[in-house]
Amino acid sequence: MSIAIDSLHFSYGSQPVLNGVSLTVEQGEFVALVGMNGCGKSTLLRLVAGLLTPSSGSIMLDGDPLRSLSRRQVARRMAVLHQTLPPVPGLTVRQLVRQGGYAHRGPLGMLWEASTSETDEALALTGVAHLADRVLDTLSGGERQRVRLALAVAQNTRVLLLDEPAAHLDVRHQLEVLTLVRELRQARDLTVVSVLHELDHAARFAERVVALREGVVWADGDPREVMTPALLAEVFGVAGRVVVDELHGTPRCLPDHALSDHSLSDLSMGG
Amino acid sequence: MKATHRWGAVRGAAWIALLPVVAAAHVLAPGRPLTGALNQRILWELGVPRLLTALLAGAALGVAGYVLQAVLRNPMAAPEFTGVNPGAVLGVLAALTLGVVPADSAVGALLAAVVGGALGGAAFASMRDTANLVVYGLLGSALLAGFTTMLLAYQPGRFGNALRWLIGSVEGRVWEHLSVAWWWIAGWIALAWLSSAVLAVLSPGDDHAASLGLPPVAGRAVALTVAIALTAGAASLAGAIAFVGLVVPHAVRRLRGGVLTATLLGGLTLAGADALAQFAGRALAGTQRLGLPTGVVTALAGAAVLVYIARKEPA
């Protein structure tokens, strides 16, 4: 399933966030959205998820305008892993993952079966079947993220949107969750668009990096080509070096120091 | 996994088995003999309707509280804290005091409760910020209590009758009231049950619900309508019964139950509280006639349970 974004504008009140983002994501791609805090990457993800309405511009899902689709139609095509899942007292893993069937079955179709085949399959595929009857609040951060990915899998969509899936996890669980995303993408032939905070994660796991600055796409391409010291300076405001990780053949960023606001605005004028 | 399901069924059966126990306790609590034509007539005309009133109103409040806590994501959300219950009681009182409906009209009380409950709920909903729900709820309740007192001040002669609605009591309802309330409450509980998945999907938040395919505003509108209708149904029968709608949902969540568990537990709780009220009333007054209003028992017991919950469940 492809996503076509055309000259998207969005502002929170009078504060412009996106100033004409155009981007096409093809079926099966793994795209990382990167940029500084407040650059609009999460906003872009929420617009694509249909949770915000753009002030102008369009988003097409496989040729259908997003705004012409109902919430359930969107949810059958696209699953979203938000930054956080508010706690629900007593909610078990199975109860949560089962909710993935809502878009397909509707409220009445959800009444009878305590567990569905897609629930069991999703639990197995994400390696959390043994946690199925645990209460969600008692799980560790890494387990929680796996369970939330199980929910997305149970939704049985072709597109997966992720908003910082590895945030607040230790190194081991960061790698575990992102590796799982990569495996799921292969197993289910998913199109993945993920906001990622860590540049090294973006370079290692995504095939394409889209860097946002000042509400537009500043750089877009293969991480091996896009990740440069110039990008570090312009998009992230740091002076640093980029080296090649020989084991994986992917770039690694070595930030050295933060640039001053003054030198940042110089970069802006230079383009 | 299968074992868990079977265990759940056993637990469910155990709760249903409590129903005849509570019913028997309720019937026996007044201490009146069950033999003799007069006693049997009293039982049939007063005792049984009183038991059914408690079961129905309790079930309605239990489900209303369960629905509110699920969609407002606040463990303190309850009919009495969201303006719905005070509004419904004020509606009934206003209708009675102003003489819009006769005191014993079942339909009139229900309509008045629905209008009042909807106004109270709408006033609450217009405040939007559910984080401060309890503060707003208390504000709303105080405001409505003020109006209620004002109404009473103009009609001091009817104070005794009004007190029944203010404190909450299941006494004095007869078959006619039940025949109206039964359809209303059973219908809305059925709708709540049919909306179980909507409640579940709404519980983890608006973004979650929207991404799973449920427009959160529409889902919440359905849920709040159900909660208002059920609270009004309970208020039209029993007035301002407090704490059932607050405490029952906590127990339901602990049992990992849903709407049906809330129905059963709500009914059991209020019927049990009323059995206790009758028993305590008899012990205190030494006569069969004077009873303790049920609302007193639910308020006292509910407050104790709430303190227990608050100590065990941080936020």
TrEMBL record, chain A:
InterPro entries: AAA+_ATPase, ABC_transporter-like_ATP-bd, ABC_transporter-like_CS, P-loop_NTPase, Siderophore_ABC-ATPase. One of its GO terms (molecular function) is ATP hydrolysis activity. It is found in: Cell membrane. Residues 3-239 form the ABC transporter domain. Pfam families: ABC_tran. PROSITE patterns: ABC_TRANSPORTER_1, ABC_TRANSPORTER_2. One of its GO terms (cellular component) is plasma membrane. GO terms for biological process: iron ion transport. Its main location: membrane. PANTHER family: IRON(3+)-HYDROXAMATE IMPORT ATP-BINDING PROTEIN FHUC (PTHR42771). This is Iron complex transport system ATP-binding protein. It comes from Nonomuraea dietziae. The lineage of its organism: Bacteria, Bacillati, Actinomycetota, Actinomycetes, Streptosporangiales.
From TrEMBL, chain B:
Pfam families: FecCD. It is a multi-pass membrane protein. It comes from the Bacteria. GO terms for cellular component: plasma membrane. Keywords: Cell membrane, Membrane, Transmembrane, Transmembrane helix, Transport. GO terms for biological process: siderophore-iron import into cell. It is found in: Cell membrane. The chain crosses the membrane at residues 12-30, 51-72, 84-101, 108-127, 133-154, 181-202, 222-247, 259-280, 292-310. GO terms for molecular function: transmembrane transporter activity. InterPro entries: ABC_BtuC-like, ABC_transptr_permease_BtuC. The keyword Transferase does not apply. Belongs to the binding-protein-dependent transport system permease family. FecCD subfamily. This is Iron complex transport system permease protein.
